[in-house]
């Protein structure tokens, strides 16, 4: 990846608790935001630290498969979504084939993904709309994708980036949480994080940030008790509002 330019540091405020006269008071600690060079190094390190995310192998740069798999993945773990998507794609992997299936057939194929009945109907509905309004092709713009039933910004960005290979930043809870923990930005919602990253993150890293941070968030930088002791980028992380996991003390040898 090309080395991005280094912007001027900005200031990040994070609350920390100090004790004074036996009373708890909150003090603001000034930290500079991580610059683009450091963030690029972090993403490259994480990209080499984890195996390929199964979504890439499942969809093989097929926008329609990315779209369907993303809808099935909402509020569903990968270990449930991946085999469910595989079962469905054996039977129907194009809009034309999908609309020929009854909702009950799709439901049985994708069970036990969360909200499988609602998702089955959404898949049929947006497949029909692709045939009626887009010539059976999955659009490659965020605005057009957001007109499809069951598609939000996260799914739309993933379809544009992973499916079409175009610049897009897919922000989920992992990307939002970890970017704030690292001290790269300071945002309150995934939507705000997406907009800040579009302006701040060099474009060569747009295609990898979601994949590496999802894997990092699932395996190491967990919401509660992050495994900072084994994190490959621990020395670069500012650990904003982080409480690492408690390590078990080794018993002395007898």
Q: How would you explain this protein's 3D organization?
A:
With 254 residues, the chain is mainly α. It has 2 domains: 95 residues, Orthogonal Bundle (Endonuclease Iii, domain 2); 102 residues, Endonuclease III, domain 1, CATH 1.10.340.30. It is built from 12 helices and 2 strands; from the N terminus they run E-E-H-H-H-H-H-H-H-H-H-H-H-H. Strands 1-2 form a two-stranded antiparallel ribbon. It is globular, with a radius of gyration of 21 Å. The termini are far apart. The N terminus is likely disordered.
Features:
254 residues, mainly alpha, Endonuclease Iii, domain 2, Endonuclease III, domain 1, 2 strands
Number of strand segments: 2
> Which segments are poorly predicted (pLDDT under 50) over 5 or more consecutive residues?
1-29
Mean pLDDT, rounded to whole units? Answer: 87
User: How are the strands of the biggest sheet laid out side by side?
Assistant: 1-2
Fourth CATH level, the homologous superfamily of the largest domain: Hypothetical protein, domain 2
CA-atom Rg in angstroms = 21 Å
CATH fold topology of the largest domain: Endonuclease III, domain 1
Distance between the ends: 52 Å
Please write the CATH class name of the largest domain. Mainly Alpha
Write the layout of secondary structure elements.
Blueprint: E1 11-20, E2 23-32, H1 36-49, H2 54-59, H3 63-73, H4 78-91, H5 95-98, H6 103-110, H7 116-133, H8 142-145, H9 153-163, H10 173-182, H11 190-200, H12 206-219
Antiparallel strand pairs: 1-2
Concise synopsis of the structure shown:
With 254 residues, the chain is mainly α. The protein has 2 domains: 26-52 and 169-236, Endonuclease Iii, domain 2, CATH 1.10.1670.10; 62-163, Hypothetical protein, domain 2 (Endonuclease III, domain 1, Orthogonal Bundle), CATH 1.10.340.30. It has helices at residues 36-49, 54-59, 63-73, 78-91, 95-98, 103-110, 116-133, 142-145, 153-163, 173-182, 190-200, 206-219, and strands at 11-20, 23-32.
């Amino acid at each position: 990846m090309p080395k991005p330019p280094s912007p001027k540091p900005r200031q990040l405020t994070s609350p920390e608790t100090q004790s004074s006269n036996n009373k708890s008071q909150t003090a603001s600690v000034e930290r500079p935001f991580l610059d683009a060079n450091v963030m690029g190094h972090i993403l490259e390190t994480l990209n080499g630290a984890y195996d390929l995310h199964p979504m890439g192998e499942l969809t093989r740069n097929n926008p329609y498969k990315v779209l369907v798999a993303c809808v099935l993945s909402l509020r569903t773990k990968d270990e449930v979504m991946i085999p469910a998507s595989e079962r469905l794609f054996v039977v129907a992997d194009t809009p034309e084939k999908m609309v020929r299936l009854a909702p009950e057939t799709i439901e049985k194929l994708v069970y036990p993904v969360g909200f499988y009945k609602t998702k089955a109907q959404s898949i049929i509905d947006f497949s029909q709309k692709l045939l009626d309004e887009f010539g059976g092709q999955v659009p490659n713009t965020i605005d057009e994708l957001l007109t499809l039933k069951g598609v939000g910004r996260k799914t739309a960005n993933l379809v544009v980036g992973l499916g079409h290979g175009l610049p897009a930043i897919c922000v989920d809870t992992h990307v939002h949480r970890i970017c704030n923990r690292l001290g790269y930005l300071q945002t309150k919602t995934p939507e705000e994080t997406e907009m800040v990253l579009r302006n701040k993150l060099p474009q060569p890293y747009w295609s990898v940030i979601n994949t590496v941070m999802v894997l990092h968030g699932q395996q190491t930088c967990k919401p509660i008790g992050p495994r900072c002791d084994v994190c490959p980028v621990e020395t670069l992380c500012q650990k904003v509002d982080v409480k690492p996991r408690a390590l078990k003390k080794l018993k002395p040898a007898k």
